[in-house]
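Worked example

This section walks through a single chain of length 115. The input is the sequence exactly as stored; nothing has been trimmed or padded.
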Amino acid sequence: MEADSKWQPELIDLSQVNGAFSFEEGYSRPDWKVISQAIQQRISGPLDLNTAWTEAARQWVMQLQSDLGGDYQVKDSPHFILLTALDGLASIKRREKLGHLVSYFGVRSQRANGS
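Given that input, the structure is written out below as tokens.
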């Protein structure tokens, strides 16, 4: 899992999409309909579509990081995006638990679907 304070979106920059976020009750809230329309207008191809949605989710989490202030960090892995105030060993232990949960529920849902 990596944190990258210099991360920039490659396919969809929500700061350039009017109405992508509103600010309510102290937090930025995404307008997923507006974001979906922007992605559909700009992106073609299933791999780029998946990447664009992942970028949109990461930008929302980064906006929440900014809204919360303090020492929150954004970290991501191939399976999830994490916003955490934990650092060091506590973050590593939490990441390991989350990784095990993702693996467990991923296997479990595949079994339920007969895959």
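What to look for: The first helix runs from residue 32 to 42.
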